[in-house]
Structure formats: C-alpha cells, structure tokens
Amino acid sequence: MIVPSGSFEAEPLNVTVCPVGTGLGEAVNEADRWIASCQKPVIIAGVEIHRFGLQDQLLALAEGSGLAITTTMLGKSVIPEIHPLFVGLYEGAMGNDEVTRFVEESDCVILLGTFMTDINLGIYTANLDPGKCIYATSEQLRIRHHHYHGVLLEDFIRELAVRKPKAPPRELPKIRNLLSEKFERRPDAPITISRLMARLNESLDEETIVIADIGDALFAATELVTRGRTEFISPAYYTSMGFSVPAALGAQVARSDLRAVVIVGDGAFQMTGTELSTIVRHGFPTIVIVLDNGGYGTERSLHPGDFSFNNIQPWAYHKLPVVLGGGTGYEVRTEGEFDDAIRKAWADTSGMSLIQVYLDPNDRSKALDRLAQKLSKHV
C-alpha cells in the first residue's frame, strides 16, 4: 500500500466484545455439544496460553473433561510435561509417529492459542482437517466452519471449562520419557546431540528456563521434559535465527531468580552471540551451549551434497569469556567431557558459562532426521 504524503489518519478500529449469553454463549454451546458427541477429542495448546497466562484455565478444562493435551513447539511447557494428560508435542512430520497419529486420528481437535506457523506445522507437514477443528486464538474463533467474532480466548476457555464436556477416555500414546531413562555416560564416546539432550535433561529443574534457537537446537530440544510451566522458550520461526542469546538476556533481566540455559547452533550464535557481553556485564549465571558442527546443519540435511555455502568460519567459542572479560569457557568432544562441563557450569553461579560442543557435521536429532526424510525431495 502506498500512503500519500501529508497527514494521514487511520480509521479507528472498533472491536465489539460479546458478553456471556450472546456470541460467547453460542460458541460455548456449540463446542460443548460437539466435544461431548465425539469419541477422540484432543487439545493442542499453543503459545498464547503462555502469553495470556491461561495455564490454569487450560488445566481446568482438560482435567474437568478428561481431555488429552498436546502442545506445539511454541507452546512447549504451557503445562508440566509430566502431567498425566500430556501426550507430547505435535510437530507434523518432525514429531513422534504415535503422537502424530493420535492427533490426526482425532475427530475433534481443539486448538487453543495456537498459530499455524511453518515450524509449528513441521514445515507444513501437519495434516489437520479444518472441518474437525475448534480454532480459538486472540484473533479469531472458528468451530469447524462457523466463525464467531469478538469472543475473547480467555472467556471461551473459561466458560468451556465450566461446562466440563465429557468424551470417552482415550488410551494415551506410550511415548518415551527421558525422565525415566537414567543417563549412563560413556566417557570416551563422541558426544551427539541426542545424548547431549539426554544428559541435560537430568539437570533441568523448576528454576531453569531453557531457550532454544532455531534449527536442530530446537528440534533436538523438543526431547527435553519440562517440570514446571513456561520454562521453555523458542521462536519456532525459521527466519528468527539468532534469537536465543538476546532472549536469554531478556529472560535473566525479567527473572533474575531463575537461570537461563541457551541451546544454540554455531551459525545462529555468530549472528547475535556478542550480546553475551551484556550478560557478562550483569553477572548473570547463564549457561550457553554452542552446538558446533561447522555450519547450518538443518540446511545440510535438507540439501544433501556438496553445498559449501552451509559451512561457516570456525570460532574458538570457548575462549570468548577471555575476550568478554568474564565467565568460564569449556571445550567438549566426548560424553565424559560434556558431563564434567555441565556439572561445573551448573555449580558455578558466579557468572556466564559457555560450553563449546563439537558435533559431527552429519549428526542430527531424530526430529530433524524425520523432517529431512519428508522434505529433502521437495526443497
């Protein structure tokens, strides 16, 4: 749109919010009747549950109705992932096959605060029929093909929770839970991204905020199990590479009582990693794990062959604390070295810790492997 020179006044936006008993009441009535008539309903919770503090309302709806909960990547940790109704992450082709089937075989998919982004949908490999969806966000409410205007997300979830729509219980997928697997370190074995996540999982607690950058830093981190809620932050948009280190600074300023743990690829780190300077200046005990595979691992997976443009200039990341004048650096190649480094970093709250983890350029998470198999022939 071209705006002419001179003054320009936009028309005021008038939004009418429907009170209980009008649009809201009709929407809740329709959703209540439909959910109660279904055999396999499921909730997909998204990032707006975080943003608007609707975790309690979400749990009231799920627990009152016995509805299983999945989340998107953006919505990861909206509820504790050890909750008995939690199924796992729905990620399209990237996700666990059992979870994907569980969601896509549902006859009523209740998307609450969920945005249909590229990464949330597994690079658009998700298979959701709009005719079987309740889609409620701060921007719109759609029940199958019926649209309701001016209904607030918070009001819709709250009123639906009051109704407690009942549906038959479903057997939940028996997905692998990293909490049930004790990490048995193999001291001399080369570290892999999957083993790194398994070890990191043992250290997480309710005073930790995990911040994952885009790419395999995020895909692998979906294996982590959050104990509390809103303890996992990621952009989940591929064009926001370099998000994690600045985001950690913001998280530490907002919640100085918690510790941020950053998982970032070397390519993403080179975009914005100098923000560590501010983290050092404030003395935050942030732990930064740089996944050093020499370039853009996701692109290598999707474009196999000799694509040297996916390689980047190698840095001695573990020496950055010397350059920045604070913090401690660690250089890691084996499981034993990573185990030692994460123990020391966790015990050290005097300042920033940076762990440079050398990974094989061909190493990748199960999620990225599944995605690459689906997409490599088409991109």
How would you sum up this structure in a few lines?
This protein is of the alpha/beta class. Helices cover 33% and strands 15% of the residues.
Walk me through the topology:
Elements: H1 23-37, E1 41-45, H2 47-51, H3 55-65, E2 69-71, E3 86-89, H4 97-104, E4 108-112, E5 133-136, E6 141-143, E7 146-148, H5 153-163, H6 193-203, E8 208-212, H7 216-221, E9 232-233, H8 244-254, E10 259-265, H9 266-272, H10 276-282, E11 287-292, H11 297-302, H12 320-324, E12 328-332, H13 335-347, E13 353-358, H14 366-375
Helix pairs in contact: 1-5, 3-5, 6-13
What does this structure look like?
The chain has helices at 23-37, 47-51, 55-65, 97-104, 153-163, 193-203, 216-221, 244-254, 266-272, 276-282, 297-302, 320-324, 335-347, 366-375, and strands at residues 41-45, 69-71, 86-89, 108-112, 133-136, 141-143, 146-148, 208-212, 232-233, 259-265, 287-292, 328-332, 353-358. By secondary structure, it is of the alpha/beta class. Strand 12 (328-332), helix 13 and strand 13 form a beta-alpha-beta unit. Helix 1 packs across helix 5 (153-163), helix 3 runs parallel beside helix 5 and helix 6 (193-203) runs parallel beside helix 13. The longest helix is centred in the first third of the chain and has 15 residues, at 23-37. The chain is elongated. The chain starts with 22 loop residues before the first helix and ends with a helix.
